[in-house]
From TrEMBL:
Family: Belongs to the pyridoxal phosphate-binding protein YggS/PROSC family.
InterPro entries, alphabetized: Ala_racemase_N, PLP-binding_barrel, PyrdxlP_homeostasis
Function of the protein: Pyridoxal 5'-phosphate (PLP)-binding protein, which is involved in PLP homeostasis.
Domain Alanine racemase N-terminal span(s) in chain numbering: 32-236
Keywords: Pyridoxal phosphate
CDD domains for the chain: PLPDE_III_YBL036c_like
NCBIfam families: YggS family pyridoxal phosphate-dependent enzyme (TIGR00044)
Modified residues (N6-(pyridoxal phosphate)lysine): K40
Name of protein: Pyridoxal phosphate homeostasis protein
Record flagged with keyword Transmembrane helix: no
Presence of the UniProt keyword Transferase in the record: no
Amino acid sequence: MTDRKAQLAANLAQVEERIVSSCVAAGRKREEVTLIVVTKTYPASDVRILHELGVRHVAENRDQDAAPKATACADLSLTWHFVGQLQTNKVRSVTGYADVVQSVDRAKLVTALSAAAVRGERELGCLIQVALDAESGERGERGGVAPDGVEELAAAIGEAPGLRLDGLMTVAPLAGEYAGRQRAAFDRLMEISSRLRAGHPAANMVSAGMSGDLEDAVAAGATHVRVGTAVLGVRPRLG
Ligand SMILES: *Cc1c(COP(=O)(O)O)cnc(C)c1O
């Protein structure tokens, strides 16, 4: 085993242990939580090692980095999640490799993703990114729609050819009433998810929790956690 593989294996084992303990504490089954490894800023060779170690879900946040990486790993059976703020001029590229876009936060993006999915003859999973700290009608600093905008976006995705509404995603806010209160933030996301599922029963994915707060996300009921640093190490640059 190479040094890098041994390091990633050890880190993955630690993250797995944290997920298992959180599931036990919450009375949940381990299978209810999917680990997505956020590979942004790390090379395709790491993605390859992660695949060898059993990882099947990876996430990226910048198309410039993700597109070549996905191409280099096209032979691997991986589900690619796009989790970054997405400009409409990148949609066509992202639709070429992403299976799920977790950062859908405006109607214009829905239209663009739908057109690209139809053109590419694919079905694209969509999560609505919720900005828990955004005021009504506004978007979050790091993307996301205010909670009261979820229903309208859900309807748009539900009607858009080529798109499949899979659920919700959030990043715990750094400011506002939820700053430093991850558990409360994720509980709020679960409430919004319950309301969404009443009208869209298949939209049952809840993507929440990162390296620092995955326990809170599992406790609240998240189905997917997105972990970067705890698996790959501290990123060499901001991403
Ligand atoms: C980078 C990133 C993560 C992973 O964050 P870590 O703290 O490194 O685990 C999760 N979600 C999104 C949207 C990200 O951009």
